[in-house]
Specification:
Elements: H1 2-26, H2 29-44, E1 49-53, E2 64-69, E3 76-83, E4 86-94, H3 106-124, H4 130-143, E5 146-152, E6 157-159, H5 162-167, H6 179-183, H7 188-202, E7 209-216, E8 222-234, E9 240-249, H8 251-272, E10 277-283, E11 291-295, H9 299-303, H10 307-312, H11 315-318, H12 323-339, E12 343-350, E13 356-367, E14 373-381, H13 383-431, H14 440-471, E15 479-482, H15 483-500, E16 504-509, E17 515-518, H16 520-536, E18 543-552, E19 555-562, H17 595-605, E20 609-615, E21 619-627
Parallel strand pairs: 16-18
Antiparallel strand pairs: 1-2, 1-4, 3-4, 5-6, 5-9, 7-8, 8-9, 10-11, 10-14, 12-13, 13-14, 15-17, 18-19, 19-21, 20-21
Helix pairs in contact: 1-2, 2-3, 13-14, 14-17, 15-16, 16-17
């Protein structure tokens, strides 16, 4: 007997479940009730019936709205169907039926009657009924690639998955309506996490169940699904019984998110190699709480401030601005926001490491709908660029000053040479005047005038050469010149000066004529200057040796050795500077400090170079390296 009762209970529970599932599938409560009444008669072995009332009332007090099954006959047991305190209809059963045996069925029938009553009321008022409303909701959800599902956990019945199958491209009925069958579509790598999310919700650890996983579509591709749900019914012992939820296809959403993430990563990699920082700066309408919605990671290297700190509050950067520039920065930003003009400004900041650096900002403003202003642009370290610009300005000023000096020297030299030549000419005439010959004292004074004049004329000539070289006005005639011939000429011209100071001039040459590609006149000038210096700064009884040699097929060398006082090592780097005489400046030896500067410049113009080495008390060696000429 107990086994028979248990079997009836199970059958009645299944009838209630099937009626609800039919309603969920069709959205038609009246059809579900007819199905329930027919199945109940089969289970009890006798016809059953149902009467729906028009209005709330006690049994039999309200007129019938509709009926189904067998409701007439005296041998009937009538049970009221109530829901939310309302009598919605009556269930007509065979006499002797135990009402307690129907405890799992009566609430289901009452709930379906309430839904049918609400549907009829909406129809009479011209409004969409629950079934129509549900269809509208389902259509709206389907438009968003979403559907609603219900899971009877005890029976593993999964209703309303046809829409989900459609989203995956499967035909209706191709997959059994059970969670076990649906799990067969889930990617194997995602099954464990999906089940774990359900268990967490079932244990009450999460308010809702949520899981993102991949499901295999009919075309073999994997689609990303987002599933959310909630357990809405439990057994008395807390065991989950029924669960409702939604499922959405988020494949496209994830693709867009992945593309956005990859774009952001590319931008991040690019900004890491940009010298400055890229930024988005926002100023609210009231001018308060300015912030950086975006600033690249190089803010740490540029300012010593992490991007996260600047994203929260722009004052972290403003506080680093130099006190003298801070108000200028604020005023320029406000002016850009007010006029809509591009923000360009150079200002100084004190980095967190204490370094003072110049920054250059360039950003374009855009007025937003809420009245705020947003700038997009960049800030770069302009310290080196400003120093370079300053150096260029100084170089331009120095070049202008040098041109003015060159022009002045050129003019004054020409102006001085004319009267000086006249002075020298009259001095020579007085020295050789036979009609009124000068006395011994006058001869001595005239000689001093003539020597001083000759020295001044040489200095003026050197000045003219120097100014012409600096201005690029020195024209050379490069040709094949026998180097030994020019050296012989120079030594012959200086032989008298050497004899007066008891200096011996010696020439050493490997071969003759040793041709060099030079300007003959300027090479003689160079040699005269070097040999005359070797004589002038030598000692009595000393020697001056000129050595000629071929270095290779393209190069010849001429070196001038002396046994003079030498040049201190500290003075060697400046020996070719204009007007520099070093320790000789305070001696009685005449000189202007221009000759070696002109010599170096002339050698360079001829494609050669000049070097010097010296030992104090031993002597000096000046070496010319010149291009050889075919010979």
């Amino acid at each position: 007997m107990r086994s028979c009762t248990l079997d009836i209970d199970l059958r009645l529970g299944a009838i209630a479940r099937d009626a609800l599932l039919d309603h969920l599938s069709r959205g038609d409560p009246r059809h579900a009730l007819r199905l329930l009444v027919g199945a109940l008669g089969d289970a009890l072995g006798a016809p059953c019936g149902l009467v729906a009332h028009d209005a709330v009332g006690r049994t039999g007090d309200a007129p019938r709205r509709w009926q189904c099954g067998s409701v007439d006959g005296a041998a009937r047991q009538v049970l009221p169907l109530q829901r939310l305190g309302r009598v919605l209809g009556t269930l007509h059963l065979p006499a002797g039926t135990d009402p307690q045996a129907l405890r799992a069925l009566l609430p289901t029938a009452a709930a379906l009657l309430l839904r049918d009553h609400d549907t009829s009321s909406a129809d009479s008022a011209g409004l969409p009924g629950p079934s129509e409303h549900g269809a509208l909701v389902q259509a709206a959800l389907a438009g968003a690639d979403t559907f609603v599902w219900e899971w009877d956990i005890a029976s593993d019945w999964l209703s309303d998955i046809d829409e989900g199958l459609r989203l995956l491209g499967y035909p209706e009925g191709s997959v059994r309506q059970t969670q076990e069958a649906w799990n067969g579509l889930i990617h194997p790598d995602d099954l464990a996490a999906n089940h774990a999310a359900y268990l967490q919700h079932a244990r009450g650890e999460t308010e809702i169940y949520e899981s993102t996983y991949r499901a295999r579509a009919a075309d073999g591709q994997w689609r990303w699904l987002l599933e959310r749900g909630r357990i809405v019914e439990r057994d008395p012992d807390g065991t989950p019984r029924r669960m409702l939820g939604t499922q959405s296809d988020i494949t496209e959403r994830r693709r867009l998110a992945t593309a956005a993430r990859e774009t952001t990563e590319r931008l991040t990699h690019i900004t890491e190699h940009v010298p400055g920082i890229l930024l988005q700066f926002r100023l609210p309408p009231d001018g308060s709480a300015a912030n950086f919605p975006y600033i690249s990671a190089r803010s740490q290297a540029l300012f010593g401030v992490a991007p996260e700190e600047l994203l929260g509050d722009a004052r972290a950067l403003l506080n680093l601005v130099d006190d003298a520039d801070r108000q200028r920065v604020i005023n320029s930003v406000l002016a850009s926001a007010r006029d809509g003009t591009r923000w360009r400004l150079d200002f100084r900041i004190h980095r967190r490491d204490g370094a003072l650096r110049w920054m250059r900002a360039d950003a374009s403003p855009q007025r937003q709908a809420d009245g705020s202003t947003v700038w997009h642009g960049y800030i770069e370290d302009a310290t080196e660029r400003r120093e370079l610009e300053h150096a260029r300005e100084q170089a331009a000023v120095a070049a202008a000053a040098n041109r003015a000096k060159t022009e002045f020297l050129s003019r004054i030299s020409h102006e001085l040479r004319t009267p000086l030549n006249a002075v020298l000419g009259f001095t020579q005439l007085m020295e050789i005047d036979e009609a009124e010959p000068p006395g011994p004292g006058q001869q001595r004074r005239l000689k001093l005038v003539r020597e001083a004049g000759a020295h001044l004329l040489q200095m003026i000539g050197d000045l003219l050469d120097l100014t012409r070289i600096e201005s690029g006005g020195m024209a050379l005639q490069l040709e094949a010149v026998p180097l030994r011939t020019v050296v012989d000429e120079a030594l012959a011209m200086l032989q008298g000066s050497a004899e007066k100071l008891q200096i011996t001039l010696v020439l050493h040459a490997d071969e003759a004529p040793l041709p060099a590609r030079v300007d003959r006149t300027r090479l003689r000038q160079v040699l005269l200057n070097l040999v005359s210096n070797a004589i002038k700064y030598n000692r009595a009884g000393g020697r001056v040796e000129v050595r000629l040699e071929r270095v290779d097929a393209d190069t010849v060398r001429c070196s001038v050795h002396d046994t003079g006082v030498g040049i201190a090592e500290a003075e060697l780097p400046r020996v070719f500077d204009p007007f520099y005489r070093g320790l000789q400046a305070g001696t009685a030896i005449e000189g202007t400090g221009i000759g070696l500067s002109v010599t170096q410049a002339l050698v360079a113009l001829m494609g050669g170079r000049i070097t010097v080495r010296s030992t104090v008390g031993v002597g000096s060696v000046f070496t010319l390296t010149l291009p050889a000429a075919p010979g």
